[in-house]
Specification:
Helix 7 packs across helix 9 and helix 7 packs across helix 11. The protein has a 7-stranded parallel β-sheet, with helices on both faces. Strands 7-10 form a two-stranded parallel ribbon. About 40% of the residues lie in helices and about 15% in strands. The protein has about 350 residues and is an alpha/beta fold. It is globular and about 55 Å long. The longest helix is centred in the first third of the chain and has 20 residues. The chain has a domain of about 210 residues: NAD(P)-binding Rossmann-like Domain (Rossmann fold, 3-Layer(aba) Sandwich). The chain is built from 11 helices and 13 strands. Bound molecules: nicotinamide-adenine-dinucleotide (NAD). The site of nicotinamide-adenine-dinucleotide (NAD) has 27 residues, from helix 2 and strand 5.
């Protein structure tokens, strides 16, 4: 690990750290990470009822609040020294292509929360942006050149979800420029790992394909449906790298209000990802392609020149290793659900 400043080197262990979206995948992992570093004053927030959270870390103040309301944001950040905003109405391609209004409405979370954090005198504020903020015209070929931070402008982001991220990034930049707030912005590229959405319509490719392989093994129907032609390419970042990166980015003064890629630079086609998962599952399935399913941009990779330059580090967990852990976790969830035990699968998609 590098010697970059982190929460552990900059903060007192009883400083209040607030994580929103903590009932979800990355927020839940971030709370666990700070807890494991010895922080004793953590507040975790999500709009999902507590029993539906993927993980709840013992000893952490866990609140069910809808942060699209201003007063809930004010309550959420009371007394906080740092705020990490991981709350968003989001999902994999199937969700973000079909529920653009829901995605856009996350702007309410980000606008109310950053203002509340500013008024509460929060010292550092982290925002989880996405590679979907990049210009889609640059992502029409599976053999893409990796996206560097300047590729977001001129802007032609993913409709709905990507534009919301771009606008919320700008809030972070202007709160820094006009109000001197220390904001940090990471553009995540496909994060995967245990304790995330694996079913229900919001799951992303690594979890969805792991579940499909498990289902095929269970049912004896040795076929797998792949969205598109499977030649679309992506990079995949393991969750442990993601939380480490969030910590380093938030505490780096050279990165205040400066969007930075947080993703793996190892590129895989969806077909290659399926092969990796099949290896873990010990099975080879017949592939059926669905050309009408949502497939997203043709290709996307993270250019890690900037993060290497500023932090001397980049996400580096090999896919093979991360997928094995993810698959094992989903297999357990699948078995638990079959046995009638409650499992925190994805929130169903509704237009409430
Ligand atoms: P997730 O869906 O597992 O978690 C997000 C959480 O936010 C959910 O638990 C949801 O209930 C909560 N939430 C939604 N609306 C809320 C509201 N109004 N008030 C309070 N909580 C609310 O998603 P994730 O994968 O953990 O993503 C976390 C962040 O990272 C999001 O901002 C997402 O856009 C971003 N991101 C994730 C990925 C990825 O690959 N997972 C990629 C790029 C960006």
């Amino acid at each position: 690990m590098s010697e970059n400043p982190t929460a552990a080197t900059m903060r007192n262990k009883d400083d209040l750290i607030v994580v929103t979206g903590a009932g979800g995948f990355i927020g839940g992992a971030l709370v666990r990470y700070f807890h494991d570093q010895g922080f004793t004053n953590l507040r975790a927030i999500d709009k999902k009822p507590l029993p539906k959270w993927y993980q709840r870390t013992p000893g952490v103040e866990s609140l069910c609040l809808d942060l699209s309301y201003r007063e809930n944001c004010v309550r959420a950040v009371e007394g906080a020294v740092e705020v990490y905003n991981l709350a968003a109405d989001m999902g994999g391609m199937g969700f973000i292509e079909n529920f653009r209004v829901e995605c856009l409405r996350s702007v309410l979370i980000n606008t109310h929360l950053i203002e509340a954090a500013y008024r509460a005198g929060v010292d550092r504020y982290f925002f989880s942006s996405s590679a979907c903020a990049y210009n889609t015209d640059l992502q029409k070929d599976p053999h893409v050149r990796a996206l560097k931070e300047s590729d977001a402008y001129p802007a032609m982001a993913e409709r709905g979800y990507g534009w919301e991220k771009l606008l919320s990034e700008m809030f972070c930049q202007e709160y820094a420029a006009e109000r001197n707030m220390k904001t940090a912005i990471a553009r995540f590229h496909n994060v995967y790992g245990p304790n995330g959405t694996w079913d229900g319509g919001r799951e992303k490719a690594p979890a969805a394909l792991s579940r499909k392989v498990i289902e095929a093994k269970e049912s004896g129907n040795h076929e797998i449906v792949i969205w598109g032609d499977g030649e679309q390419t992506r990079s995949f970042m393991y969750i442990d790298d993601c939380v480490k990166g969030i910590d380093m980015i938030t505490h780096c003064d050279d990165l205040i209000a400066t969007p930075i890629n947080l993703g793996s630079s190892e590129l895989f086609s969806i077909n290659a990802l399926v092969s990796e998962i099949e290896k873990v599952g010990g099975i080879t399935l017949e592939r059926r392609y669905d050309p009408d399913a949502p497939r997203g941009v043709a290709g996307r990779n993270s250019d890690n020149t900037f993060i290497q330059q500023v932090l001397g580090w980049e996400p580096n967990t090999p896919l093979k290793e991360g997928i094995a852990k993810t698959y094992a976790w989903i297999e357990t969830q699948y078995a638990d659900r079959k046995a009638g035990k409650p499992t925190p699968a994805g929130e169903s998609v509704d237009h409430g």
